[in-house]
Amino acid sequence: MKQVISYSLYGQQPRFLIGAVKNAQLAQRFFPGFTVRYYVGNSVPTWVRQTLDLFPNVEQILVDLPENNLARMWRFKAICDPEVDVVL
User: Fold this and answer.
1) Among 76, 77, 24, which Cα is nearest to 54's?
2) What are phi and psi of 72, to 5 degrees?
3) What is the reported pTM?
4) What are the residue ranges of helices labelled H in the chain?
5) pLDDT tens digits, residue range 54-80?
């Protein structure tokens, strides 16, 4: 049974980038067994992607789409993944 906490991550605003790293940390503690999945846009700095790669509970899916208002909806792609049973 695969359980996922799904996020959209794009842009270069520190509050979202640092928040993504903090959410990965918190998920390890409060949601053991869950995978934190980030749908990552091209604008996300390399240091953030490399930091997220350090967490064993994180997976990143690169999205090569425009980073406009619809980018917030990327996180809902996890619902269509047939290998995922639970999505938060």
Assistant:
1) 24
2) -65, -25
3) 0.95
4) 14-30, 46-53
5) 999 999 999 999 999 999 999 999 999
